[in-house]
């Protein structure tokens, strides 16, 4: 595990006063000044209501709200509260009226009817906000509405914060903007967590792939001992506690976690309840007395939510539920803002019991029995639920009405409301601009954003909820029969896809001293990669798991594999050598130097490639060894440790034999993992040019690409020694049948920079589409 060093962000000189701006904010009434005269009283009044969706839990004077005896924890079954169940059913009845609406059309409609819809765009232009997203605006509202930053932190001049489930980092960027624009006098240390967007086994539906901040501040992000970033594992919590042990005081914890519940929106609250539980326990275990906690939740009807809110009310002096104006009014999202933590010592008996039930598979028992929740609390909580239920249902019904048709008068009114909301936001929260030099990332050096082909690839649904549920209910065979997968089946390879993908560059100065070996649990499958088009990888995995080829026996697979696609181009070995010769000639012409001798072409682990045919006058040398082409495409793709170790072993075998100007050809399954991307980076560093040939086979599940490396220019001895040590470590793990594997050895900051990222994207996407095409073509043929 790599150690994170906390680097303070020095701001202005310290002062000893608790800033007045951090005192509790009263509701601000926007006066009818000149700037608001054009809107009129009605528009202004309706706009102000957007900023008043706040409910505070008022504790009874007799201190009745106390945690029960620890012996009462996790002993009873969940028992729902009938009045809250009725509210849930009422809300779902309204939501169900959206089931037949096309998601793209409905999203476009609600984007227009969103009264706060212009705020983000205005802030981007007017205040130079970094990573200005909806989350940025929401957290800025919270910061300006509640005294989140304890006076102690401001008086001592040091602020320490933890941000859970934080990707892409908008809360952090918003807090930075607040501190810099208000000249808050403190040194700020922060650490963040999120599902690791680079971990190959993470679910792409759960992961936020926008890494503009993450890739450029990686040393501040903690992904846990297994490198997944899963906050719902006890190992992550204990590791985080150890990591922050050098923070004297943790003043603020935020948690903005959720995941895609589009498949079952009516049960969103229940689906995310275990995540909220783990986020809360993590906050209570890491936060210092007097600190603040912000937790994103949704509806609060379930027994689990009632218990969680009761726990928080017993753990903090103040608890508020807040829906920012910039949170879409038609969704269930709210933020629970907890102020002045009593400290874990005050609740340690219950907290220790909660630690025993930490994780995805929580015990199915209720945290507290229904009978121990005071009636006075239930009454206040029901008022809270009614308050937000009313606001949400009113918005949905209004959007449904306007969806049927909107008059010019209604359009004009909405536009006025949207313009007014911008003015109210700016005046209410006094948002000020900051200089780019005050950003967390002044100039991005790494990340998905460096790859122009990534934009627009995130999976989006453009169908109705009912249509999506129907698609989910179809078997693989039904999808093939109904033509749902024809988009892949029709993509025939008419030429070498890799012909136009050439990775050139000046020699890297390999900073191998900064490299480190990162180990984690063996990958069960590869579902997530920054180096491949997500939809292609997802569809290929479904094919590999559910298709006839995947489910059939070895003999059936062999017979099916012999049926080639007649419409696809299948280049012979001579074609690949011709491509190689052209690249070598082009490099020679670019350099203007004649080679002192004819370069050699080494072919590694690819015996079928050299069949004695014309090799374009190249001096071809076939290296003996375990053929890499025997590995087949599977759900692990290139994540199989044995494949990775053999690939590295072949490189170590060939490096001593290579002379300046030589070429190298290797078969490659894919390059979706960080480990294999690291090896391609090494090749990029020691060859003048990389390209690939795809396809090289018409057989589904076989090797479908060859990596072409041209113009060897040498590799420093320390790098070769490092790779030898890496190879030994991998061999040891394999021979001991260890549950661990090497996940990475070149820092992600390096792999996510330059043209390498686009080259890997082209390579992996071509391979995934090719394999998917062949599998579906085989499935569509008549069975014999």
TrEMBL record:
Active-site residues are 296
Instruction: Check the record and name the InterPro entries matching this protein.
Output: Adrift-typ_MeTrfase (IPR025807), mRNA_Cap_2O-Ribose_MeTrfase (IPR050851), RNA_MeTrfase_FtsJ_dom (IPR002877), SAM-dependent_MTases_sf (IPR029063)
Q: Which Pfam families match?
A: FtsJ
Supply one GO CC term from the record.
Answer: nucleus
On whether Nuclease is a keyword of this UniProt record, the answer is: no
Reaction(s) catalysed by this chain's protein:
a 5'-end (N(7)-methyl 5'-triphosphoguanosine)-(2'-O-methyl-ribonucleoside)-(ribonucleotide) in mRNA + S-adenosyl-L-methionine = a 5'-end (N(7)-methyl 5'-triphosphoguanosine)-(2'-O-methyl-ribonucleoside)-(2'-O-methyl-ribonucleotide) in mRNA + S-adenosyl-L-homocysteine + H(+)
> Which GO terms fall under biological process for this protein?
7-methylguanosine mRNA capping; methylation
Which residues make up the binding site for S-adenosyl-L-methionine?
169, 188, 256
Q: Which UniProt keywords apply?
A: Cytoplasm, Methyltransferase, mRNA capping, mRNA processing, Nucleus, S-adenosyl-L-methionine, Transferase
The superkingdom listed in its UniProt entry is: Eukaryota
> Adrift-type SAM-dependent 2'-O-MTase domain: from which residue to which, for each copy?
130-343
EC number(s) on file? 2.1.1.296
Query: Where does the record place it?
Result: Cytoplasm; Nucleus
Annotated function: S-adenosyl-L-methionine-dependent methyltransferase that mediates mRNA cap2 2'-O-ribose methylation to the 5'-cap structure of mRNAs. Methylates the ribose of the second nucleotide of a m(7)GpppG-capped mRNA and small nuclear RNA (snRNA) (cap0) to produce m(7)GpppRmpNm (cap2). Recognizes a guanosine cap on RNA independently of its N(7) methylation status. Display cap2 methylation on both cap0 and cap1. Displays a preference for cap1 RNAs.
The protein depicted here goes by the name: Cap-specific mRNA (nucleoside-2'-O-)-methyltransferase 2
Natural source organism: Phrynocephalus forsythii
């Amino acid at each position: 595990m790599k150690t994170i060093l906390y680097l303070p962000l020095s701001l202005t000189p310290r002062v000893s006063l608790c800033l007045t701006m951090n005192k509790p904010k009263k509701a601000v009434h926007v006066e009818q000044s000149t700037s608001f005269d054009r809107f009129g009283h009605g528009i202004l009044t309706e706009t102000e209501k957007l900023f008043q969706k706040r409910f505070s839990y008022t504790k009874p004077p007799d201190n009745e709200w106390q945690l029960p005896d620890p012996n009462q924890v996790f002993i009873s079954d969940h028992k729902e509260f009938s009045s809250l169940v009725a509210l849930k059913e009422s809300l779902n009845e309204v939501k169900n009226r959206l089931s037949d609406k096309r998601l793209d059309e409905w999203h476009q409609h609600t984007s227009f009817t969103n009264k706060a819809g212009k705020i983000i765009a205005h802030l981007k232009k007017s205040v130079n906000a970094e990573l200005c997203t909806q989350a940025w605006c929401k957290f800025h509202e919270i910061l300006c509405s509640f005294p989140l930053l304890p006076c102690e932190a401001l008086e001592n001049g040091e602020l320490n914060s933890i941000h859970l489930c934080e990707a892409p980092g908008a809360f952090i960027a918003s807090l930075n903007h607040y501190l810099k624009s208000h000249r808050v006098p403190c040194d700020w240390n922060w650490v963040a967590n999120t599902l690791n967007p680079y971990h190959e086994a993470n679910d792409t539906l759960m992961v936020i792939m926008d890494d503009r901040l993450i890739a450029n501040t990686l040393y501040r992000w903690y992904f846990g001992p297994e490198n997944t970033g899963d906050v719902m594992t006890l190992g992550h919590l204990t590791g985080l506690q150890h990591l922050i042990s050098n923070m004297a005081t943790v003043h603020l914890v935020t948690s903005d976690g959720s995941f895609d519940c589009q498949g079952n929106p009516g049960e969103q609250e229940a689906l995310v309840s275990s995540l909220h539980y783990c986020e809360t326990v993590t906050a209570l275990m890491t936060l210092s007395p007097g600190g603040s906690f912000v937790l994103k939740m949704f509806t609060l009807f379930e027994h689990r939510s009632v218990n969680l809110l009761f726990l928080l009310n017993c753990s903090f002096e103040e608890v508020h539920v807040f829906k920012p104006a910039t949170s879409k009014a038609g969704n269930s999202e709210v933020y629970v803002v907890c102020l002045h933590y009593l400290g874990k010592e005050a609740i340690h008996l219950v907290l220790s019991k909660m630690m025993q039930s930490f994780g995805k598979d929580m015990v199915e028992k209720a945290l507290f029995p229904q009978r121990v929740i005071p009636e006075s609390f239930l009454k206040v909580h029901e008022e809270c639920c009614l308050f937000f239920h009313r606001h949400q249902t009113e918005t949905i019904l209004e959007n449904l009405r306007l969806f049927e048709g909107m008059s010019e008068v209604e359009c004009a009114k909405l536009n006025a409301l949207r313009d007014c909301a911008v003015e109210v936001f700016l005046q209410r929260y006094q948002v000020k601009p900051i200089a780019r030099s005050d950003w967390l990332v002044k100039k991005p050096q790494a990340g998905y954003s460096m790859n122009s082909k990534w934009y627009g690839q995130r999976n989006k649904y453009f169908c109705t909820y009912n249509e999506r549920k129907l698609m989910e209910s179809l078997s693989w065979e039904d999808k093939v029969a109904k033509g749902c997968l024809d988009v892949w089946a029709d993509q025939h390879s008419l030429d070498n896809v890799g012909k136009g993908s050439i990775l050139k560059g000046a020699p890297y100065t390999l900073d191998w001293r900064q490299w480190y070996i990162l180990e984690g649990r063996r990958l069960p499958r590869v579902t997530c990669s920054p180096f491949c088009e997500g939809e292609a990888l997802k569809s290929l995995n479904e094919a590999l798991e559910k298709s006839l080829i995947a489910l059939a026996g070895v003999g059936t697979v062999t017979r099916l594999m012999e049926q080639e696609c007649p419409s696809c181009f299948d280049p012979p070995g001579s074609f690949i050598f011709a491509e190689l010769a052209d690249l070598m000639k082009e490099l020679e012409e670019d350099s203007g130097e004649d080679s002192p001798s004819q370069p050699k072409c080494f072919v590694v682990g690819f015996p079928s490639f050299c069949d004695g045919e014309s090799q374009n006058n190249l001096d071809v040398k076939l290296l003996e060894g375990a053929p890499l082409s025997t590995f087949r495409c599977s759900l692990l793709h290139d994540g199989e440790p044995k494949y990775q170790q053999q690939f590295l072993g072949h490189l170590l075998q060939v490096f001593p034999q290579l002379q300046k100007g030589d070429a190298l050809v290797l078969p490659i399954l894919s390059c979706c993992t960080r480990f294999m991307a690291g090896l391609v980076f090494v090749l990029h560093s020691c060859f003048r040019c990389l390209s690939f040939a795809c396809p090289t086979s018409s057989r589904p599940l076989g090797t479908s690409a060859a990596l072409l490396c041209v113009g060897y220019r040498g590799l420093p001895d320390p790098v070769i020694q490092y790779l030898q040590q890496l190879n030994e470590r991998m061999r040891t793990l394999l021979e001991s049948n260890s549950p661990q594997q090497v996940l990475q050895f070149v820092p992600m900051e390096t792999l996510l920079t330059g043209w390498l990222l686009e080259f890997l994207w082209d390579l992996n996407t071509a391979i995934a589409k090719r394999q998917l095409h062949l599998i579906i073509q085989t499935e569509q043929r008549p069975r014999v």
